[in-house]
Amino acid sequence: LRKLDYEGKNNALDELRSKVSALRSATSVLSNADNLELFNASSSDSDILTLSASAEANPGSHTIEIEQLATAETWIHDNSGFTYATDYVGGGNFIYSYNYQERIITAIEDETTLEDLVNLINNDAENPGVTASLLYQDGKHHLMLNGRETGADYQISINQSNTQVLAAFGKLTTDESGTAAGDSTKITELYGFSGELGDDDLITITGKQHDGTAVNENFAVTEYTTVDHLISEINDAFVGTATATFVNGRIR
Q1: Domain named Flagellar hook-associated protein 2 N-terminal: which ranges (predicted)?
Q2: The whole model's pTM is what?
Q3: Can you tell me the distance from the alpha carbon of 225 to that of 198, in angstroms, rounded to the nearest whole number?
Q4: Does some domain include residue 178?
Q5: Is residue 166 part of a domain?
Q6: What is the full DSSP assignment across 12-70?
Q7: How many structural domains does the chain have?
Q8: 214 and 244 part of one domain
């Protein structure tokens, strides 16, 4: 009986020690004031501004004034002579640029109407993100283009002629079936590449800047050079006067 009584007391002491240890751990956490501070950040209009709070945040209320919100680019044909949406627009090319991509929409003489031109732009398989529509104002129908993205990088420009410096580039593929290359595709993985790279293998970038300054730059090609590296070298060579992009296997 004494042994059983001793074991019972010993078990009770072990349980008490465990609870005291748990209590000590809990009070140790509470002794740190940082653990008692929970920060919650909220915005009066989360559609305009979202907030988050870190452990270093200070309590308080702050007012942030938004002077201007980013808006999508809109272009409107000012000097419209179209009384009806079914008026013919004439034959020729309508050329516009958006998101560093240029599109050429071809109109046919005595066939393509203003409405048709809108549909040609919207149904273009390679439309870079522009929606065309008609604006009726002062008795005339005006062609209107709206960008789908906001920010300074998404501007619409109408070009009088084709400005694609790199139009001579064909589609870059990785096999005979025409699988388009990607940004990370190595130059040595492109279909048609043969042989081995030497120590002095170069790619030459030539052309002219808008002010007529000649561009003639070489950069070395290694086994690690990718299409993305090529795009970067082209953009560096033209110092911002022209921008190359890589879309669906083609450099533009």
Answers
A1: 5-72
A2: 0.44
A3: 13
A4: no
A5: no
A6: HHHHHHHHHHHHHHHHHHHT-HHHH-------S-TTT------TT--------------
A7: 3
A8: yes
User: Tokens 């129908």 identify what position?
Assistant: 141
Report the residue count for the chain. 252
- Asked if residue 219 and residue 197 are part of one domain, the reply reads yes
The answer to whether 219 touches 98, Cβ cutoff 8 Å, is no
Task: Please write the tens of the pLDDT for every residue from 114-129.
Answer: 999 999 999 999 999 9
* Domain around 44: 1-69
Tell me, what's the pLDDT at 135?
A: 93
Place of tokens 């589609």: 171
- The answer on 113 and 78 residing in a single domain is yes
**Closest by CA position to 132, among listed 70, 89, 71, 74:** 74
Max CA separation in the chain (angstroms): 115
- Shared-domain flag, residues 59 and 79: no
